[in-house]
Amino acid sequence: QVQVVESGGGSAQAGGSLTLSCVASGLTFSSYAMAWFRRAPGKEREFVAAIWWSGGRTSYADSVKGRFTISRDNAKNTVYLKMNSLKLEDTAVYYCNTDPASAAWGQGTQVTVSS
Question: pLDDT band at residue 101, thresholds of 50, 70 and 90?
Answer without folding.
Answer: confident
